[in-house]
Write a structure and sequence with these properties.
Largest sheet: 8 strands, mixed
Shape: globular
Low-confidence stretches: 1-7
Strand content: 15-25%
CATH architecture of one domain: 2-Layer Sandwich
Distance between the termini: 57 Å
Number of strands: 34
Oligomer: single chain
Helix content: 25-40%
Number of helices: 19
Mean pLDDT: 92
Length: 665
Amino acid sequence: MSGAETTPAVVPLWRPSPERVAATQLERFRHAVLQPSTDGAGGLAELWRWSVDEPGRFWSALWDWCGVIGTPGTEGYRPGAELWEARFCLGAELNFAQNLLADRPGADEVAIIAGQEDGSRRRITWRQLRADVAAMAAVLTEAGVGPGDRVAAWMPHVPETVVTFLAAASIGAVFSSTSADFGVDGVVDRFGQIEPTVLVAADGYRYGGKAFDCLDRLAEIRAQLPSLTSTVVVGCLSDAPDLARAEGPGTAGGLERWSDALARHAGAELTFRPLPFDHPLYILYSSGTTGKPKCIVHRAGGVLLKHLSEQRLHCDIRAGDRVLYFTTCGWMMWNWLVSALACGATIVLYDGNPGVPEPAALFGVAEELDVTLLGVSAKYIDSVLKSGTRPADRWAYRSLRSICSTGSPLSHEGFAWIYEAVKADVHLASISGGTDLCGCLVLGDPTGPVYAGEIQTRGLGMAIEVLDDEGRPLGPDVKGELACTLPFPSMPLEFWGDPDGSRYRAAYFERFGGVWAHGDYASWTPRGGMIIYGRSDATLNASGVRIGTAEIYRVVEQLDEVAEAIAIGQQWEGDTRIVLFVRLGAGAVLDDDLRARIRADLRAKCSPRHVPAVIAEVPDIPRTRSGKIVELAVTEVVHGRPVKNLEALANPEALAHYAARAELA
C-alpha cells in the first residue's frame, strides 16, 4: 500500500438479519412484482428504479397487493403537460373509510387504544369503532352534510376525532382538524376559510397534569363560523359538558353532546359511498407563520396509496401490530397514524405531555402497550437523551420492531442513543416529508442498514433529487434543494380558495420550472442515504456560504449546559452574520467560557463559517404547535418586522425575548 491516508469505513449502527429481511413485506412485494421479469437480486434500489420508471405499473401493483377495496379503473397513470396535471388510477372508485374499516382483524379485537398522562386507557374494538362511525355518519347526514361538504374538528388526540374523520369520509364529506390547544384566532383563521357545516369540539383537554377548559372559546369560535348548522361537543373533562357556556350571542347552528348524538343513531347501518380516486378527503394547513395558513386539499385515493406504500413497505406495519405516533390533531402525522388502520393495525393514541411524569414516559407507554412501531420527534429523542435516562435498563421492548423519528433532523448522537440506550435490534427510521404531500419524500428501509445521521432511502414511487440553484441534480456530499422531479399520487388536489391554481403552482413548482421543490436543504451520502439540514428558507447565508441550521444545533445541543438552540442570520454591515440564541439547562450560566466552548466545538466539528458572531441567552424558543422551531419568526423580530399569524405558534410570547436585544444593536 502507498502511504496515502485512507478514509475510515463507515460502520452501520444496525443491519437486519437475512431472516428479518426475508420476512418483511417490502421483500415479499419486491418478489411479487419483479419476478419473473428480473432475478430480484437488486434489493430496494431495483424496486425503487422500477417504481419511478413504471409509475402506472407500480401504483397499480400496490393497489392489488394491498387489497385496496374499490374499482381500480382502466389506466394506472397518465402524465400531463405539467407535473401537477398528471393523474393516477383514472376511472378508479373507492371509499377511504371503507379501506380503514375493512374486516381484516376480528370484530372483537382492539382497533384503538387511547391513553393519557394519568395512566387511564380506553380500548375500542373494531366492532365498536364501526358502530360509532355508522352512528356519527348518520348524525352528519341529519345535519345536512353531503359529499364535498366540510366537517371540522377542534379536538384533542382522542378516539372521537378518529370516528368523526371516518364518518365524514364514509359519506364523501371533507374533514379538517386542529388541535384543541389552538386559540380562537388560530381556529377561525383555518376553519373560517373552508366554511364547515358541522363542528366537533371538546369541552377541554389535559396536558402536563392540568385541565384546560375550552367551552368559552368554543362560543367565540361558533360566533365566527356562520356556515355551521350543528356543533357536537365531546366530553373530555366532563361526562355532561355544560352546553349553555358554548352558546354565546349570535352563534350558528344547533348544539348537542356527543353522547346524545350517537345514542340517537345507535344501530345505524354502516355504508360507504363509492367516490372517484381524486375525491377530496381532508384539508390540512400550512404553518401560517408567514401569513394566513394555506388550506391544502388532499385527494382520497392518492393519500391511501401513498400511506400504504410507506406503512406496509417502508415501515413494515402488519395486521395485528400496534402503532403509536406521538402527535396532535393539528399535525399531518395524525392523519398518517389513522391510516395505519388500513394495515389492520391497532393505533395507539396518546394525548398529553410525553415527558410527564418523567422524561421517558412515552417509552414506558410503548413497553406497557406492546407497541411495535413507536413514532416520536427528533427533539423528544434528544430531550430524553439529555436527561440521562436509559429506557433499556427498565424495559425489554420484546414487541418493538421499529422507531420512527421526524419533525426535524435527528442528530448522530440521537441515532446512537437509540441503539445503546433503548434497543439494539430495532429499525430506526428517520423520515421526512410534510403536510404538503401528507407523507414522506425520504424514509426508512427495513431491509437495509442504518447509519448515524442518515435517512436511509427515497420513498418508492418518488423521483427524489438534490438540485443546485440551476435545477441540476447533485451527487453525494454536495448540499442543495430537495425536490421531486416526477408526479406522485398524493400531490395536493388544490389549495382551497385558489380557483386558478396560481398559489398552488407558486408554492411548489415555480422554483425549478415545473418540478416539486420541497423547501428543504439536503445532500446525498455516498451510501445513497440523505442528510437534511433544515428548511431552505431558514438556511443561513453567511458571506455567501449556505449553512443548514441543523448542522449548528447538532453540535451545540450536545453540550450539557445547552438545552436547545435557535440560529438566525442577521443583516449586518452589508452582509449576514450568524446569531445563536441558547436556552440553558438548570444552573447553567452563559459566560465567556461557555461561549468559547460553543465556538470551538463549531469550528472543530463543522467549520469556521459555522461559528456565530453573537451568542445570546433566551429563556424560551418559539415553536409551531407541531414542535418545530421557527427561525423565520425570530428573524423577523430581530429585524423589527411584524410576525404574521402568531396563532400558528404554540408559545408566541417567547418572541418578546428576541426584540431590541442590546447585543444585536
